[in-house]
Amino acid sequence: MLTAIENVAIVAVKASYMEISMNCVTCNEPIVVLELQDVEIDYCLACGGVWLDAGEIELLINSKPETDRLLAQLGEGQNRQPGKRKCPICLKKMEIINLGPKGKVQIDHCRKNHGLWFDRGELEAVLTIFDTDDHSAVRSLLKSMFGK
Known about the structure:
Elements: H1 4-15, E1 19-23, E2 30-36, E3 39-44, E4 50-53, H2 56-60, H3 64-75, E5 80-86, E6 93-99, E7 105-109, E8 115-118, H4 122-130, H5 137-146
Antiparallel strand pairs: 1-2, 2-3, 3-4, 4-8, 5-6, 6-7, 7-8
């Protein structure tokens, strides 16, 4: 069964409303660009991964203190380790950053700050940790898009 975002993406692809921007850093399939409340999300239909350009995650989190907490964790050196995936912008190897309690969510971060890569489910997990408003418009929209 397809999630709402996959249904939207299929309709948009058929109608040629979507732009293909780059290839997925995980499965190398084309990524499509979706707009979510003025934020462009690069989404892989094949594996469910999401690329956010620099600054876009901050736009998705409604709370300034929570955004600051996320940025502080992104900046902490002890939570980083070398990664194998390459940034789709500069093609340099990204680093893995452990986020949240006990580092349970691992995301890929471009060392040149071009953006962040989220495997399927990681964006929702990060927003659950850092966007404390359970009823925020962005979290509600993501839940409906990703079927969670």
